[in-house]
């Protein structure tokens, strides 16, 4: 199932045919009218996302969202609920040449023969346009598109991770109100979706900070991750660089009873190889290779040869 895409009707493929009704509709801005026309100028096979729109025009994302909101309010975009395996996945918005009142645009009905799939409000959906896989329209859903629920929808991974993050902090700093909890959830969502970090890595960084003598007095909320320091650098970027610099390769976990690594010269080819002293005896490179995948071994060897242990 595809999300976050805009389709032009195939019958208009050879021409940029735009319904005249958009030009006769009163109370809509010239910018929204232009965007509506622009959507019709692409071939049906063109994969378009909201990010794709932002990448074409010099207008910012907020301005584009405002124009989309206008089209929704005037009825030129109609919302349709999407289900995946019987479960609610989000919404698609369909271009229509029969404008309706704003209330009619949220009924979920599709205008037969005149619809074009637009964008979904599903959280972190898999997009076919891989160039923009880090972008979703959940943020637009919360801020721009009318919805029956005031509570944003977050994916299952974030909801499961949330209590583990909360448990890192003393009770006086834990989020208590619904508003505070939503701010934490939104922060985790943006750290994963916009900043591109894995929740597991974010959690490990947060855990290390809470165990640090200095940061346990200065890192009192995960919201700090998306704040910036005096140099304009996000704390999450700053902390993640430090974390990755000290993080040991996964190959460490594959060697049981490890005490330390050592480097020796191969008698066969004269090249440097790595060995490991363990509780069960010494392991040489060919033995270590068999304990892990090739990429894990290469990462581990590079780490050891660089003087780490």
Overview of this protein structure:
- It is a single chain.
- With 309 residues, the protein is α+β, with helices and mostly antiparallel strands.
- The protein is built from eleven helices and five strands, in the order ααααββαααααβββαα.
- The chain has a three-stranded antiparallel sheet with strand order 3-4-5.
- Helix 2 crosses helix 4 and helix 6 (156-166) packs parallel to helix 8 (199-211).
- The longest helix is centred in the middle third of the chain and has 16 residues, at 178-193.
- The protein starts with 20 loop residues before the first helix and ends with a helix.
- The relative contact order is 0.08.
- Mean pLDDT is 77; it is low at 102-149.
Q: What spatial form do the alpha-carbon principal axes imply?
A: elongated
Low-confidence stretches: 102-149
Helix/strand-derived class? alpha+beta
Strand content: 5-15%
Span of the ends, CA to CA: 46 Å
Number of strand elements: 5
Radius of gyration of CA atoms, rounded to a whole number: 26 Å
Biggest sheet record: 3 strands, antiparallel
Q: Trace the largest sheet across and list its strands.
A: 3-4-5
Number of helices: 11
Residue-averaged pLDDT, rounded? 77
Number of individual domains: 3
Q: Could you spell the SSE succession in H and E letters?
A: HHHHEEHHHHHEEEHH
The helix fraction, in percent, is: 25-40%
């Amino acid at each position: 199932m595809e999300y976050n895409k805009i389709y032009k009707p195939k019958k208009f493929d050879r021409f940029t045919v735009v319904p005249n009704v958009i030009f006769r509709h009163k109370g809509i801005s010239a910018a929204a009218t232009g965007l509506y026309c622009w959507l019709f100028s692409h071939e049906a096979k063109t994969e378009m996302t909201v990010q794709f729109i932002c990448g074409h025009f010099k207008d910012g994302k907020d301005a584009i969202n405002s124009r989309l909101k206008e089209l929704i309010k005037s009825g030129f975009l109609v919302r349709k609920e999407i289900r995946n395996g019987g479960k609610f996945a989000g919404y698609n918005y369909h271009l229509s040449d029969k404008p309706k009142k704003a209330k009619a645009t949220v009924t979920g009905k599709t205008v037969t023969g005149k619809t074009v799939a637009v964008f979904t409000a599903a959280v972190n959906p898999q997009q076919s346009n891989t160039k923009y896989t880090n972008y979703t329209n959940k943020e637009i859903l919360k801020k721009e598109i009318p919805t029956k629920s005031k509570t944003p929808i977050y994916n299952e991974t974030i909801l499961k991770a949330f209590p583990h993050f909360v448990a890192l902090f003393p009770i006086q700093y834990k989020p208590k109100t619904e508003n505070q909890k939503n701010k934490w959830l939104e922060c985790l969502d943006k750290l994963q979706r916009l900043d591109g970090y894995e929740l597991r890595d974010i959690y490990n960084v947060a855990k290390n900070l809470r165990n640090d003598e200095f940061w346990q007095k200065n890192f009192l909320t995960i919201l700090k991750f998306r704040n910036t320091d005096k140099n304009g650098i996000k704390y999450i970027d700053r902390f993640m660089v430090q974390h990755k610099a000290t993080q040991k390769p996964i190959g460490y976990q594959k060697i049981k009873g490890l005490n330390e690594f050592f480097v020796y010269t191969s008698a066969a080819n004269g090249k440097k190889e790595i060995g490991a002293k363990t509780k069960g005896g010494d392991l040489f490179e060919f033995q270590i290779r068999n304990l892990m995948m090739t990429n894990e071994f290469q990462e581990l060897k590079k780490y050891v040869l660089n003087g780490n242990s």
